[in-house]
TrEMBL record:
Keywords: Coiled coil
UniProt superkingdom: Eukaryota
Native source species: Rynchops niger
Protein name: RGAP1 protein
Gene Ontology biological process terms from the UniProt entry: mitotic cytokinesis; mitotic spindle midzone assembly; Rho protein signal transduction
Cellular component GO terms held in the UniProt record: centralspindlin complex; cleavage furrow; midbody; nucleus; spindle midzone
Name of the gene encoding the protein in the UniProt record: Racgap1_1
GO MF: GTPase activator activity
Coiled coil keyword on record: yes
Coiled-coil spans in chain: 38-86
Length: 151
């Protein structure tokens, strides 16, 4: 009887070991799958971070280009106003000249029509650029948030 008890005891212990080994194997396989998933996610994260960095560089270049174009526009507008003032002075000088013929005065008067006179009005922006659609590059609509440039 004692031998039979030992044999039964050994048989149940062996089954317990087999169950434990199966649980360890299932856990090992799960850990392997999780490691593979983790590596896949790390690779995906690296790709997304590289793409984000590239987009930040593009954004920085675009902001710089907008700034350059706005400076060009300001300089062009200042030059336009300067030329308009000169043209206005020339026009006024020619209109005041006593030696001018009647024909010259009539030509100047024709040039001084509504449109020409309006374009010579001081402080008026050029009509060469149609700003009725509110350009996407309008300096008043652009917000410069430089805090993200340091990221």
């Amino acid at each position: 009887e004692r031998v039979l008890q030992l044999l039964e005891f050994d048989g149940s212990v062996e089954e317990d070991y087999i169950r434990i080994v199966r649980c360890f194997e299932a856990t090992r396989q799960r850990c392997c799958r999780l490691e593979q998933d983790g590596q896949r996610v790390r690779d995906q994260l690296a790709r997304v971070e590289a793409e984000r960095a590239a987009l930040e560089v593009k954004l920085k270049h675009a902001r710089n280009q907008v700034e350059v174009e706005m400076n060009k526009r300001y300089r062009a507008e200042a030059e336009l106003e300067k030329q308009e003032r000169k043209l206005q002075l020339v026009f006024e000088t020619l209109m005041r000249e006593p030696w001018g013929s009647g024909e010259q005065c009539s030509v100047l008067s024709a040039l001084a029509g509504r449109r020409f006179a309006a374009s010579l009005a001081p402080g008026r922006r050029s009509s060469a650029v149609d700003e009725s659609c509110q350009s996407l590059l309008s300096h008043s609509d652009i917000s410069y948030d430089r805090t993200e440039d340091d990221v």
